[in-house]
Structure formats: structure tokens, C-alpha cells
Amino acid sequence: xxxxxxxxxxxxxxxxxxxxxxxxxxxxxxxxxxxxxxxxxxxxxxxxxxxxxxxxxxxxxxxxxxxxxxxxxxxxxxxxxxxxxxxxxxxxxxxxxxxxxxxxxxxxxxxxxxxxxxxxxxxxxxxxxxxxxxxxxxxxxxxxxxxxxxxxxxxxxxxxxxxxxxxx
Length: 168
Ligand code: FES
What we know:
The chain is an alpha+beta fold. Helix content is 43%, strand content 11%. It is built from 7 helices and 4 strands, in the order ααααβααβββα. It has a 4-stranded mixed sheet, covered by helices on one side. Helix 1 (14-22) runs antiparallel to helix 2 and helix 6 crosses helix 7. The model is unreliable at 1-8 (pLDDT under 50). Bound molecules: FE2/S2 (inorganic) cluster. FE2/S2 (inorganic) cluster is lined by residues 86, 88-91, 127-131, 134, 136.
């Protein structure tokens, strides 16, 4: 992902132009175009959606419909680190809701939203496949298990201190 920090900046459409050029004569290329655009910008910025709409002669409504149907697409900027809190059955029983609430309070962000500094996006997901460690959250590719509301702030601090770019 080359640029996740385009929020509040003018969107550079040159990469979108290149992607559209590549698929100029390809029918049914909307999804690969959206995938490539998202890989470029980290999400699907509105001006990009407008440009795709214009070039493919597909309404923005239809593009947004596709983007919201597939979980892989995002219409809002996402943070440098994605926190996915599991709310599957095992995690729910073990207190995932309280973990999620504590994370939301600690990061000052609602579920599905990104922190003001663009560092963390907080999401709620179904079973992460690590039920024996419930309650569980995934930060980027790392699983953190047996969480408690009292320990999540420590986990966040450790992530910041671990030298991830943008969190030190
Ligand atoms: S229910 Fe949370 S990891 Fe399975």
C-alpha cells in the first residue's frame, strides 16, 4: 500500500489514469480496477470513484454498490495499523465486547473508524480462528489472545513502542 495518508490532501489521479489506461479495452474490469486503485491509495477516494465512473460509463452509485458488497474494499481512509477485534461466539462469551469498548475508549475512536492521526483503524470481525485464545484481536498480521479490558492499553503501547513506522 503506497499511500494511506491521503486524507485531507488533494487526490493525485495520475495513478488512476494509468490503471484505467491499462484496462482501457477490457470489459468487466471494474473489480480489478478497484483492487489496483485501492492498492495504490489504501482505499477508494471519492474523486477516484468519480473518474472511474466517467471512464467506464458506470454510475458512481453502481461502483459504490460493488465496493460495499465486497469486504475487501474501503470507501474511507484506513490507519497504518488495522485492529480487528473478534466478536465471534467464543470471544463474545469471554468478554470481547468489553475489550472492544476499552479499545474504543483508549484510541478515542468508534468501531469502523480511524484515529485522527491515521495510525489505527478499529474494526469488529467474525471468528479469527483462534478461539482457544479468546478473546482475541488481530493487529495487522499478529494475533493477540486472552485479552482483558485492563490489558489492551498495554498492548497498544507495546505496538507503538515496537517501532512500527508512524507509531513511535
Ligand atoms: S470466536 Fe474469536 S477467534 Fe473464534
